[in-house]
Amino acid sequence: MNLKNIVLRIKNKGINGVFRAIVGKIKYKYYRPKIVLNNKHTTIKLGTDYGEKVFIDRPTLKNSTIISCGVGEDISFDIEFAKKYNATIIMLDPTPRAIDHYDKIIEQIENGNSGVDQVNKENDHLLEMYDLTGVNKDQLVLEKFALWTENTTLNFYLPVNKANVSHSLVNFQNDYKQGDEYEHIKVNALTLSDIINKYKINQIELLKLDIEGAEIEVIKKMLDDKIFPKQVCVEFDGLNVPSKRAKFDFERIDNMLRSNGYELIYYDGLADFTYVLNATDKKN
Fold this sequence. Notes:
By secondary structure, this protein is α/β, with parallel strands linked by helices. The protein has helices spanning about 5-15, 15-30, 75-85, 95-110, 120-125, 190-200, 215-225, 245-260; strands at about 45, 55, 65-70, 90, 140-145, 145, 150-155, 185-190, 205-210, 230-235, 260-265, 270-275. Helices cover about 30% and strands about 20% of the residues. Keywords: Methyltransferase, Transferase. One of its GO terms (molecular function) is methyltransferase activity.
């Protein structure tokens, strides 16, 4: 882990987050999953160092509607994508702090501010990262639901470090332990099919999943339902806390994606991956 990543971890996860990352690196060597990467593709990245996603720049992204699940307090990728491609971003996140962060951004857009006013700067320094010039509020849509395999109400478990924003449906930060005895809030969940049908999306050009462990069941359900986004940017959060289960879960889903025509074109070395369906954008 280089100095830049250490500083980012301290800023976003706290000193305990850095400690867990170091321990995770040690465990990762033992539980390292099998990675088959094809990095012979031209890719671009959007977003801050913390929130960035890597994908293939394609003409079909222009004026597209993409789905971004798990936004937290950094929607830099979503904003930059909306601006670059004149796209609509359907975001899903029921986390209270994420909803509050989103509401402040929409308020800024409605007030006609390309940046952040002084009051909001003082109240939320995270907003300073955004350039909202040219962004229409209709391009950033938030569904205050969790993404899951069925329409239901679920426990949404709080992070171990309460300074962190991310909650989890599967409680991977607490060894996947379930039950009302673990601190949680109740949230409503919906499926990928629900979003596709509501917004009449014929083809998902890009799907972003940063859903704190729920990606395993969500991707399995997605493939079972024959839903094939052209690009999938996914964080396998279990790999941030390396274990036998996290290794097994990743390799199972990786094999399923490959069996359905996907190839891995980006891997950050820890938990962020990008898969592309029948990729053809090869470098010369």
